[in-house]
# Entry
Amino acid sequence: MHRIVGSAIVLPILAMLTQAFVSPRLIAVRELTALLATSYLLQIAVVVVGQEVDMPLVAALHPANGALMFGISGRLAFRSLR
# Structure
């Protein structure tokens, strides 16, 4: 289930990224949206590297980066309410 949700979350992230860079109204959230997309790519890299190399530090980055993504998403949500 975790893998399915992690894979499916790319769809709203790509939609948000596209809208942020296409719509002039969303210029204020471009940086946060790009940061969220970058964090998602880092999350994928952490998983792939974690599977290849048995390093606890790499495994520890996965939940930490997930928390970062959660925070960025929350910030974007609050900015959309303004």
Residues 2-80 form one domain.
